[in-house]
Amino acid sequence: MYDIETRRHALDLLDHGLSLNAVSKQTGISRAAIRAWLTLIEPLPRILGHTDCPRCAPVSLPLNDPANYAYLLGLYLGDGCISAHPRGRGYYLRIACADAWPGLIEECRNAIAAIHPSGAVYLVQKQGCVAVTSYSRHWPCLFPQHGPGKKHDRTIALATWQQEIVDAHRWEFVRGLIHSDGCRITNWATRLVRGERRRYEYPRYFFTNLSADILRLYTGTLDKLGVEWKAANRKNISVARRASVALMDAHVGPKY
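Request: output the structure for the sequence above.
Response:
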């Protein structure tokens, strides 16, 4: 007998385009068992039982971990998506994290587990990245920015309760945004000093996003934190002032 999480993981691999043979080899489960799960009369998500949602419960409840939620919200706005399960009423939250940043992958995984402790969080390997994935019937409740199409083609605004969490955990939100669509780089330039040209280096942070609404959420939060920024162009925000970079280094830091 296989538990529900094992079955769900196998079926999700099929949803990602793997063949029965590939899923069987990867999970060690026979093809006959996987094929049987595909023909269940009652869809798999309905077997999982109902978990109370803090947003759609009769009385709104506090989230399990608002600091981790602020971080996860930043990740979701940058590199996240929510998609409906093809065989049931639930949804998958997926955050794309580059293979180059194993620490980020683990932080993302921990943040999802903190927000949704009753659900499994697993990794689906893609080309050059990992989709950190979790199933729940209530991801759209927790991320009302979910909708059809690309984020930059629709309005993105925080609900009042989300804004309250972000205001209480601004650095976590900024850190999530940087870890998704941002970076810390080292620029260099030359300067003539006493007739000798010398090279000097200075760090800066960039955040890149096609959504003007998400850029405003980022810069508005930076303003409240006292971080100076400039718009390098319509989709890039730069933080280069020494004091502001020091603030970002203290609370955000580079990806790892």
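Residues 184 and 242 are 13 Å apart (CA to CA).
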